[in-house]
Every structure is written in structure tokens, then in C-alpha cells.
Q: What sequence folds into this?
């Protein structure tokens, strides 16, 4: 009586964090049906703190009339690395108690807050010069 279902595969995962002098490396081993396959190790580099100038604008167009604050035009060369901007976005969301997203393609941070004065003061407290 086969009804077309396949048998489930048993997966076992084991994760280890190995610390070295150069940084932390993550190591994961996956075991599938008795086979053991080591996965590639990726270095876990901490994001660099950002500074410099940033441009701030308010947008409504294309968002069903909902106002958002957009951060763009980062002058810091570390802003090219997305982990730095993602960490900045997370800090701002927590500090301003709002939602938001990070656009990797354009390198912008979109915060769901209408009050530009609050965003400007939060950025200045973090050491940014805000334009716009």
C-alpha cells in the first residue's frame, strides 16, 4: 500500500564554536543517514563602527501614504560593508522603537518613523553629522 509518500530522513546537527587568535570560526557538522559531511567554516568578523556624515530624507511615495525616514549617502568607507549598516539599523530601531529595513542593493536604511527630529537626534548621539 504505497500512497506516494517518501520515508523521512533523519538529520543530526552538531554545532561548535572555535575561537582562535585571529577571530571566531563557526564549525557545523551535518550527519545525513549515517554520512558525515563537514561544512565550510566562515570567519565571524565583527562589524566596524560607523561615523561621518549621512543624509536623511522623508518619503511617502510608493508606500501607500505611510511616511518613512530614509538614511542614505553614508560618507564612511566602512558603510560599504552590510554588517556595519545592519548593526546601525538594529540600534536605531531599538532606540527609536520603530520598525525598519536595510536595502543592500541601494545601501539605504528605511525606518518606519515620521519624526525626523528624533531620528536626527539619535544619529547625532551616535556621532554622525546629519544632512537633510
A:
Amino acid at each position: 500500500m504505497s500512497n506516494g509518500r517518501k520515508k523521512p530522513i533523519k538529520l543530526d546537527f552538531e554545532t561548535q564554536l572555535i575561537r582562535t587568535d585571529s577571530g571566531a570560526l563557526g564549525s557545523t557538522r551535518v550527519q545525513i543517514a549515517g554520512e558525515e559531511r563537514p561544512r565550510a567554516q566562515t570567519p565571524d568578523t565583527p562589524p566596524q563602527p560607523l561615523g561621518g556624515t549621512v543624509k536623511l530624507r522623508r518619503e511617502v511615495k510608493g508606500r501607500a501614504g505611510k511616511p518613512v525616514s530614509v538614511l542614505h549617502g553614508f560618507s564612511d568607507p566602512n558603510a560599504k560593508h552590510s554588517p556595519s549598516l545592519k548593526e546601525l539599523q538594529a540600534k536605531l530601531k531599538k532606540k527609536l522603537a520603530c520598525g525598519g529595513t536595510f536595502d543592500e542593493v541601494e545601501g539605504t536604511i528605511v525606518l518606519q518613523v515620521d519624526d525626523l527630529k528624533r531620528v536626527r537626534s539619535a544619529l547625532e548621539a551616535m556621532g554622525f553629522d546629519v544632512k537633510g
Observations:
- The radius of gyration is 22 Å.
- The helical segments are 82-96, 116-125.
